[in-house]
Amino acid sequence: MITVVGSINLDIVATGSALPRPGETVTGAKLARHPGGKGANQALAARRLGADVQLVGAVGADDMADEALKLLQSGGVDLSNVQHVNGETTGVALIAVSRDGENQIVVCPGANDVLRPDDVAHIPIEHMMGVLEVRAETLLAAARKATGFVSLNLAPAMHVPDALLAKADLISVNETEAAFYGDALHKLDAYIAISLGGDGAALWRGGWEIARVAAPKVMVVDTVGAGDTFTAALTVAMIEGKSPEAALAFAVAAGAVACTRPGAQPSLPKRAELQPYL
78, 169, 222, 228: which is the annotated catalytic residue? Predict the structure, then answer.
């Protein structure tokens, strides 16, 4: 069982011809709403790839909560440890997507900020996945309880306590986040996965690159959720015991397939869909 400790959001997405520059208004976009949040995305991605998954998180006591949770519920993710918090709104991500699939995201965390270490104290945790859209001290409390594999997605980039980093078996970042954390990542004992967008991904350990996989050629529609898919797939593959290169190839294929459809959770692939790219 993988326990995901992370954010649950409702994504409000405007898709247009181009992303706005500072001070610019772009018109003619189309509006859509999708369940999202990095924790929720990674939980559902891992579930669709065959893992048993429970999600620990928080939503508001509002009408957005049901919308944010509906695909997780129908997808078979255990939601028994998701809180509905009075007086808080469900988290919202405001997302702009351009014609070529690139995006800009602003997150209003809402109830995600309410999750505390006490909320994981009673939960048995084998394998764990965590994202930085909830409090670091909550992630640390969960990581200390984990008896198996611990995967951390250091997104969005921010200061992370050394004690939390020391608990990780796998750390995943994109190129921007890797630049923020710098060489400090490579001094850790964990595997360091760096997603490279259209160029695939690389896996490092102990300061050495141990695997690199190019991305398959796909028609990119929307990159929202691709990084979460990559992280979840890599975690699932490593828990299953795949070799570093095979696990990285599996993750890159999953992230690529996620780019071929709009939305975060609606785009998450099932395992069978990856076979043509492996």
Answer: 228
